[in-house]
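Researcher: Here's a chain I'd like modeled. Treat it as a single chain, no partners, no ligands.
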Amino acid sequence: MTSKNQRGFMLIELILVLALVGLVLAIGWNVFGLGQKAWQNLQLKLEAEAAVRLTSQIISRELNYASFMEIRNDGNMWTSSEVKNGDRIIFVNSGDVILREITAAGNTDIIIASMERGNLDISMAKRLNAANSNKPIANSLDFTVNARNNNAQLIYSSASAVMLSNMLPNTGVPISDISLYSKPTNCTPGTRILYRTEVDKFDPSSPGGGFSCGW
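Model: Modeled as a single isolated chain. Structure tokens:
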């Protein structure tokens, strides 16, 4: 038979064991929670980086041969009378980067990039002339793509520059009160851009006469 003292010691030992088990479980759960949080943050960062890089690559590729470019801010979307068939517009809608193409049948919107647990935003501006801050360089575009979480905290950002090698003289920089960087009074970065590509393709013709190859 066990004495009262022995039963008391066994009860205390049981309580201590249960307390230790509870402590170990609590520590393990906290470690698991921290690990899961770190994994979620890593996934979010990778998603943000991929979305930002994809957006930057597409914008650079699309604008590389633009012959016409105009930057505007939210609330100043182009109307049907201001666009031509074939024009394209890049803008952000509800955190998604949209590429809109103007066609005779209507507008076609394609989502360039999006995030499941965050939002994207874009800032675009013509590069300022070092000699005159009121005159931006017409054939250059600086833009930044940002990825933010649902709390608007910045996760990943990338700044890029594009040289517009096909910009048409005197027609590629529209002047208006809502066309950003067209006047000293409205030279602030915009959030959307309309561009047009007009390329004069090489048209080979039959060789003419009246010459020799020196033979």
